[in-house]
Automatic annotation (TrEMBL):
Transmembrane segments: none annotated. InterPro entries: Restrct_endonuc_typeI_TRD, Restrct_endonuc_typeI_TRD_sf, Type-I_RS_S_subunit. It comes from Tabrizicola soli. Residues 115-191, 238-412 form the Type I restriction modification DNA specificity domain. Keywords: DNA-binding, Endonuclease, Hydrolase, Nuclease, Restriction system. It holds the Pfam family Methylase_S. This is Restriction endonuclease subunit S. CDD domains: RMtype1_S_EcoEI-TRD1-CR1_like. One of its GO terms (molecular function) is endonuclease activity. Signal peptide: none annotated. Belongs to the type-I restriction system S methylase family.
Length: 454
């Protein structure tokens, strides 16, 4: 894209040069920070207004205004907003994730929201809500904001002083309008492409699931004689296949009783064994990264749950409830599991075949309805042991495994391509926003297109 004909030094390192004619300001001179709610003094306290909790603000500018409360309930302890304000989340990780929104369609034009929102009201003649939206969408704003956060852990916040003193280069108002319109249009195109790739990924996942489910319940021979399995969700199974409970196919082992560990058993990396948790198992993959480590003494205390190649592991409670992983790699670190997982050992069929069976659609449904937890999904080892799998002969198990590997390998390659495309599109989107609001590209010649589109 074309650049501006002339630039000047901004005096700000990360901004570098900006177009001549753009004015350098601190953000407080372009917008009022956290306006006073005193302007509501004459309103009836029973009047309903929009209520904006953090979950009502999206990472792409979405805003849910469906919640309402009377002013009397929210005027103390909440952040005041009105139509035309620009807000962003100041707390981690919401800031880093880009939660922000323009206030529009508020009930009565007024709202109150979580105190973790910072409010900016454009000053007349200086900037607009739409342009502020894109300024605060810039990767530079979020990245620099992260460096200024204070507090500990999940309570780190961007201070108001950072926002007040944040340097911006403001073009003339007509140019701000042109830039905002350009970004509206171009990011919408990118977002549409990202949505297409995500739909493709979802279709590929559904196809992958169907390939696995059919292979481990109906086999690979379309002309095979079938017989009733005696299980409603399984229907007919090929003749010669056995339908058996998992507890007759494998030994289930997990941390129980005194063998559970406490914080006193946790050590630093390199000083003990990896302990897998629910977050280490996703999409069939067992990851040993970002793990907890326990002392060698505690590790040796429970040899029956020490991980070995060809073990199958399942999450029985926690964030990735029902996820199943297969230890395919022969070279793994010394590792065990925490009480939220269970290991399948002494497997009487091909371990990888059991892994595939546990990922079939019918068993995924059984797992979902077996949740006995409240806010934390949970199922017992006894429940898992009673799940049933359909087992062909050992040679046919190998044929199924080989077939699924080949078929899902192709699907996984297509999925990886789509995921790469999403990453590149998102990088393109971020770069476009940054270039436009810092004047690295000139979009003024595109303004007529915006007018025509309007």
């Amino acid at each position: 894209m074309r650049r501006y004909p002339a630039y000047k030094d901004s005096g700000v390192e990360w901004l570098a040069e900006v177009p001549e004619g753009w004015v350098m300001k601190r953000l407080r001179f372009a917008a009022t920070l956290n306006p006073s709610k005193s302007e509501l003094a004459d309103l009836d306290r029973a009047e309903e207004v929009s209520f904006i909790p953090m979950e009502a603000v999206g990472e792409n500018g979405e805003l849910d205004t469906s919640r309402t409360r009377p002013i009397a309930e929210v005027e103390t302890g909440y952040t005041y907003l009105r139509n035309g304000d620009m807000t962003f989340a100041k707390i981690t990780p919401c800031l880093e994730n880009g939660k922000r929104a323009m206030m529009r369609d508020l009930i009565g034009g007024i709202g109150f929201g979580t105190t973790e929102l910072t409010v900016l009201r454009p000053r007349s003649g200086q900037t607009t809500t739409e342009y502020l939206f894109w300024l605060l969408s810039s990767p530079s704003f979020r990245k620099i904001g992260e460096a200024f956060m204070y507090g500990a852990g999940g309570q780190k916040r961007v201070p108001d002083d950072f926002v007040r003193d944040f340097p911006v280069a403001l073009p003339p108002l007509p140019e701000q309008t042109a830039i905002a319109a350009f970004l509206d249009r171009e990011t919408a195109k990118i977002d549409a492409l990202v949505a297409e790739q995500r739909r493709l990924i979802e279709l590929l996942r559904e196809k992958r699931q169907a390939v696995i489910s059919h292979a481990v319940t109906k086999g690979l021979n379309p002309t095979a004689r079938m017989k009733p399995s005696g299980i409603d969700w399984l229907g007919d199974a090929p003749e010669g296949w056995e339908v058996r409970p998992i507890k007759s196919v494998a030994k289930l082992a997990g941390r129980i009783g005194y063998r559970g560990y406490t914080t006193a058993d946790i050590v630093n990396e390199g000083e003990g064994a990896v302990t897998l948790s629910p977050s280490n198992i996703r999409a069939g993959v067992v990851s040993f990264r970002e793990s907890t480590y326990i002392s060698w003494t505690k590790y040796e205390e429970s040899p029956e749950i020490q991980l070995a190649p060809h073990d199958v592991v399942m999450v029985k409670t926690g964030s990735t409830f029902g996820e199943v992983g297969y230890i395919a790699d022969s070279s793994i670190p010394a590792a065990t599991i925490n009480p939220q997982l269970v290991i399948f050992k002494e497997i009487a069929c091909l371990p990888e075949y059991l892994f595939l069976s546990l990922n079939a659609a019918h068993l995924r449904s059984c797992i979902e309805v077996s949740n006995t937890g409240g806010t934390i999904p949970t199922m017992t080892q006894e429940t898992i042991g009673n799940f049933r799998v359909a087992l062909p002969s050992r040679p046919e198990q190998q044929m199924v495994v080989d077939h699924v590997r080949q078929a899902t390998g192709k699907l996984d390659a297509l999925t990886a391509t789509a995921e790469t495309a999403i990453t590149l599109l998102q990088e393109r989107r971020a770069a476009l926003i940054s270039a436009a609001v810092t004047g690295k590209i000139d979009v003024r010649h595109l303004a007529p297109q915006e007018t025509e589109a309007a």
